[in-house]
């Protein structure tokens, strides 16, 4: 049984998924919030589902771990060091 296009929504096609991602992006550190908000304002419309999956993984990190990555005090390593994650981190660092 295959799903119809009406039941399979990408991040871009589903406003509820977009709202949930923005909600998950809210952080305890104001600095993280500012960077992530600027990122969404600039790139949200062009994010692929792969980008969204990478962001979701990043949002699982602690505030301090995320801040270290955003400010390039640390680099991606281990399971997070993938091309899609590198792309998202690069974009986050440009805002």
UniProtKB/TrEMBL annotation:
Keyword annotations from UniProtKB, A to Z: Chaperone, Cytoplasm
This protein's record includes keyword Ubl conjugation: no
Location in or out of the cell: Cytoplasm
One Pfam family cited in the UniProt record for this chain: Sdh5
Principal location listed in the UniProt entry: cytoplasm
Family matches, as PANTHER family: FAD ASSEMBLY FACTOR SDHE
Family note: Belongs to the SdhE FAD assembly factor family.
Annotated protein name in UniProt: FAD assembly factor SdhE
């Amino acid at each position: 049984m295959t799903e119809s296009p009406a039941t399979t929504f990408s991040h871009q096609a589903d406003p509820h998924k977009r709202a949930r991602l923005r909600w998950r992006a809210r952080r305890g550190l104001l600095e993280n919030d500012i960077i992530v908000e600027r990122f969404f304002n600039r790139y949200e419309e062009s994010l692929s589902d792969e980008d969204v999956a990478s962001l979701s993984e990043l949002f699982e990190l602690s505030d301090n771990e995320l801040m270290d990555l955003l400010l390039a005090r640390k680099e991606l390593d281990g399971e997070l060091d993938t091309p899609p994650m590198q792309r998202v981190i690069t974009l986050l660092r440009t805002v």
